[in-house]
Amino acid sequence: MDAVKTMEILSEMKANDPDFNYTVQVDEESRIKTLMWVTSRGFDQYRCFGDAITFDTTYRTNLYDMPFGLFVGVNNHFQSIIFGGAMMRDEKEDTFKWIVREFIRMVGGKHPQTILTNQARAMELAIEVELPNTVHRWCKWHVLKKANESMGVLWSKNSNFKMEFHKLVHHMITEEEFGAGWQDMLEKYNLRKHPFLTQIYEVQHKWAKPYFRGVFCAKMNSTQRSESANHLLKGYVPSGCPMHLFLKQFEKLQFDRESEESFQEKSTLLSGVSLRLNLPIERHASKVYTRAMFEKFDEELYKCGTHVLDEIVPRKIYKSTHIDAAAREKWSKVMVFFRLSKIPEKHIMKRWTRDARDVLPAYLVRYQRDRGPPSSDTFRHHTMYMKALECVLLGDSNVKCYDVFMAMMKEVQAALVPLSSDKDGMGLAEREQQNQLLVQNEQETLELQGCATRSHCDGESSCSVIVGQQKKRPRGRPTTSRDKALYEEHLKRLQFCTICRSQGHKCTTCPERGDVPKAPRKLPKCLNCGVLGHRSNACGTKKSGPFEPNFL
């Protein structure tokens, strides 16, 4: 029954949102094995902000204990945005391959530049196959968590090892600097044969900061955004809810997140910003970036005021020195030194600007605002372009004008499509096609966008054969503890002495206790006679029974 309701809700969401896309993978018994969906909002968001994403799974969100994973990114307001969700029966390599492959298909075939996940081996293998050109980065928080569990006494508050390890993880810039610092740390603390440090150093390219220079990660070095979204989801979805209710609550979560994003958009457009330094470059940044990103830019601009810039080679090499010798040198003073009134366009990343969503399909890219006004050689193109802008202005007057505008545009588009097949070669598109390679790229983009709106479960006939999930009740009392991922199950947390933080003994037998006397052992008390020194099973006094009145 739950499976039928789930498919009905998916069909209803598809009817309300034509660009909503979902796919279902079933097993031999026609039971749902994997369910995945991407909304039209997620599709549009990925088109603009799909360069860096994170993926993480959470547990105990549904009746069948199926792990749920979220693809999450960051928008131009530095907010977490949800691209899509996947509910899976297991976390095997084939399952992750199917999820990654279907997600890329649903979002139009665009591969992300960077993806951040945990250290699950199955996920790593799936990404290597399905996203060969994407940089895979491990979550830094999981690396530090394993270090805390494995290093024992060296990770205590009284040791400098923890501080030096954090310095290597957070502050090293070059690979040579990181390697030299790592070897010095191993030599200093005699850890060359430590199993954890040996294993983690072999895969340093997956998590060490120097190996991600030049790799865009949207200021993310962990899966915190996915984990935060999963935690937020549990506030909407009750534990152990059926699958159809899960979808309804997930839709509410999406709506609330879109409301937060709309609030930030409104704040950027209507609210002013305060300028700290009143520099021309600062005023330019306030007009280019969103409010959230301008605050980050302004903070860095303010910090660069504590640097002194020296010219080493005229107009080529400059040395920026921080007034505080203990701080790392910065290079952000150059633009202020040259008194630039604007940030050079090649240093402005569009995804952080106010126009980040001004991303049109390849066949309409010439009309983007950052491309400038389209250059037209023909009178007919200029006339149609101006008339279309006038219609858009009128259609934006109220809701009724919008409805009339959309209805008329659909009729005009339907009438022009069959006539447009006969081209005379005088159109703007034909004039701007300089080589065949550009034409092929546009055709490939159109094909990928076309297949991104298909579903693996279209129509009621194919969905009616899906049956509900089976759940076996485990023996014993239901647990309330968190389910662990596969890469965590084989780990056993080491026990350390609370005094010296060493393994092999407890605090009661610690050699560092010194002459501190042990607390005297408390004598047992008998429940029968109340005398100290023995228990009721060794008591010689027979326990008296209940009072029996004597009626004469």
Quick description:
This protein is of the alpha+beta class and 552 residues long.
Descriptors:
alpha+beta, 7-stranded mixed β-sheet, Nucleotidyltransferase, domain 5, 552 residues, globular, 9 strands, single chain, 19 helices, two-stranded antiparallel sheet
Largest sheet: 7 strands, mixed
SSE topology string: HEEHEEEHEHEHHHHHHHHEEHHHHHHH
CATH fold-type name of the domain at 2-138 and 220-263: Nucleotidyltransferase, domain 5
- N-to-C CA distance: 69 Å
| Average pLDDT reading | 79
Fraction of helical residues: 40-55%
Radius of gyration: 32 Å
Count of beta strands: 9
Instruction: Name the structural class.
Output: alpha+beta
The count of helical stretches stands at 19
What CATH architecture label of the domain at 2-138 and 220-263 applies?
Answer: 2-Layer Sandwich
Largest sheet: spatial strand order: 1-2-5-4-3-6-7
CATH class of the domain at 2-138 and 220-263 equals: Alpha Beta
- Unreliable spans: 325-331, 446-456, 458-462
Beta-strand percent range: 5-15%
- What is the 3D form? globular
